[in-house]
Amino acid sequence: MLKKITNYFVIPFAICVILMTALFPKTTVDMTNFSTEGLELNYTVSEDIAMLSPAEGTHPTMTYDKYFPYLGKSYLGFKEALAFKESRGNYFTVNDFGYLGKYQFGAETLKLLGVYNPQFFLYTPELQEKAFLANSERNKWILRQDIARFVGKEIHGVTITESGILAAAHLAGPGSVKKFLRSFGGYNFSDAYGSSISHYMKRFSGYDTSFIKPNRKAKAIL
């Protein structure tokens, strides 16, 4: 009888003690173990920039594009900015008119660059990058005289730059760019989406495209 009474009281009591121990531990966290006092912290961003909120707008000493990582006005910045406009940087996209890849090349332009397999081109990012450079080199050779003649001049409020010319040539072809420049904007080709030569001239102006060398026979070769 005594054993049964003990079982009724001792076992529940033991369970309660275990629960109380688990729910209310006596151990406390010593926050001094996590203090940064005395450490030499190396910050790579100035405080005024780090604390700048988006609502405050652009920092007076900084300029950046809000649509893609800031890459400056280098050749890399030029091609990535153009790629973002063409396809949002997607190597594997095809638009409604059959233009392929990150830079939206047409099949006929690819043939000029020595690329005859559009499917292979679409799934080979390295070849797409080579095609962009080769096409830019070819366009720069075709437009070399117009670059020398028109860079620095203003047409319809747009200051002509070499990068603007090359971007427009990517959009419309070098022949259309020649017509635009030599007609002083009288001929202004627009593609099926409404992007015009003058728009590309303005949007992609001022990049350093000296990396691109004029080459009449430029090819995209892996």
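Above is the first protein from milestone M3; the second protein from the same milestone is given next.
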Amino acid sequence: MALPLMPKATAVWLVENTGLTFDQIAEFCGMHELEVQAIADDEVAVGMVGRDPVAGGELTWDEIRRVEKDPNAKLQMRHQDLPQPVARAKGPRYTPVTKRGDKPDAIAWLLKTYPQLTDAQLCKLIGTTKPTIASVRDKTHWNSQNIKPRNPVLLGLCSQREMEAALEKARKGRPADEEEETETVSGLVEGGAGAGDTAEYDAD
């Protein structure tokens, strides 16, 4: 069941202005009956201004009067024909104006530190555009002289969790032959040259 916008303040108002039972008020406000009784006894919510659910469009006086006459009845929230909030369409991340100047620094840091990230991932991660990324990479950005690579997490442009998720996605999206080549090179570096390599070296 939907609850009023401000349950406790609504309970305060109903205690002060109606003859509803504690149980009826508790049911409507999603509270415990003892908590409503404590409000009536001035043990909690002392000084809290009550919120009128009738003025707020959540109840009608007819509904309150109906329930007052029957201790077993329950208040029914008034159906409101109000437009529902429109969900924000997916798109570039919104960045406060005060932080927008930090994006080139963040791009430079990511390009240097995590070159495996795609331009699309960078766009999503810090809310930038591909032309901006290209200008930073090519050093053709209008403010190139003042760009200093800085961690976007510390700049507040993304969270550490978001960055780690992007890196994990980039790692999983890497082609298999590229992974094998990396592992082979790593093995040679760690294990040293093999017998065949030595023989070829001696022959030269």
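Note on the second protein: The longest helix spans residues 176-191.
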